[in-house]
Inverse folding.
């Protein structure tokens, strides 16, 4: 485990730091692969955590993120604003500036953001805004405020990333389906994987993608959803097996609207910290052919985040 301090900040008690020695994956990701969901935390001494945060993490710097990218064989990152930084996107933007065009960003915005600030974010490589509905992570923001932000970022060709729990989908359905942009769902809408994959909860999520062709899904975070955990069978590196049927169903039905990411440095995990190498070896279990792997890891994220070849 990596240990660190966050400037004058004390980590949330019991916080699990990211795994410093990931194993080398057996699965080799295709050339040009994108880790499309990861974060930077601070460092707290340079980029303070937000006063409204619900947790204080360990530091996880851009240098450490880029080292992981190289070690796992990825070409690029999509860095997603974590709630511990609130709507202060400076750590993320700093990482984009130092990525040599190999990172894009998804930020958090307040409705007070100016057009000039949006332009600066776009030029830095930001291509999306994240709306978070997970109650343990954020305070409530009125939906009309979020809709106003979505309308403004639509002008820039950005998309909206949404994070919610599966039980809240019915209540949020109308809002999600009214959004004027492409919408990307984090972690398959966090299904309860102890329920049957054919059951009503996951069926509702599949219906969302089936009926709304502008909605995409990240098939990420098996370590967050799994109840069977990281234990692999017979040295096969087949961890998080209970999540496989869920992610596989989404990859196979919507191959041109799925993304995958490590979620490094894995905020708020209570039981174990995943080995990122093992997470990469989850990919061929859910995307079983080279063609599906190419779409998931290369074609889809490059289309969504790099198609303008700008900045
Ligand atoms: C994730 C998941 C979590 C946290 C955040 O922004 C965040 O704080 O996204 C979580 O705690 O489930 O995607 O990183």
């Amino acid at each position: 485990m990596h240990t660190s301090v966050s400037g004058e900040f004390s980590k949330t008690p019991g916080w699990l730091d990211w795994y410093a020695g990931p194993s080398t994956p057996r699965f080799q990701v295709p050339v040009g692969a994108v880790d499309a969901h990861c974060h930077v935390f601070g460092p707290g001494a340079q980029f303070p955590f937000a006063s409204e945060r619900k947790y204080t993490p360990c530091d996880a710097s851009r240098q450490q993120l880029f080292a992981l990218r190289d070690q796992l064989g990825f070409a690029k990152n999509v860095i997603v604003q974590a709630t511990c930084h609130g709507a202060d996107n400076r750590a993320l933007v700093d990482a984009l500036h130092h990525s040599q065009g190999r990172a894009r960003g998804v930020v958090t915005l307040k409705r007070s953001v100016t057009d000039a600030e949006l332009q600066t974010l776009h030029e830095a490589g930001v291509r999306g805004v994240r709306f978070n509905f997970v109650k343990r992570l954020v305070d409530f923001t009125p939906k009309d405020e979020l809709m106003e932000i979505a309308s403004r970022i639509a002008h820039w060709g950005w998309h909206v990333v949404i994070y919610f729990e599966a039980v809240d989908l019915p209540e949020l359905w109308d809002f999600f389906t009214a959004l004027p942009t492409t919408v990307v769902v984090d972690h398959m809408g966090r299904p309860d994987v102890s329920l049957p994959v054919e059951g009503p909860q996951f069926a509702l999520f599949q219906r969302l993608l089936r009926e709304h062709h502008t909605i995409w899904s990240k098939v990420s975070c098996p370590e967050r959803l799994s109840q069977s955990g990281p234990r692999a069978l017979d040295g096969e590196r087949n961890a998080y097996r209970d999540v496989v049927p869920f992610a596989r169903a989404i990859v196979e039905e919507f191959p041109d609207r799925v993304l995958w990411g490590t979620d490094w440095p894995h905020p708020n995990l209570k039981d174990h910290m995943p080995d990122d190498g093992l997470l990469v070896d989850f990919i061929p279990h859910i995307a079983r052919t080279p063609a599906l792997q190419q779409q998931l890891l290369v074609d889809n994220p490059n289309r969504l985040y790099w198609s303008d070849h700008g900045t």
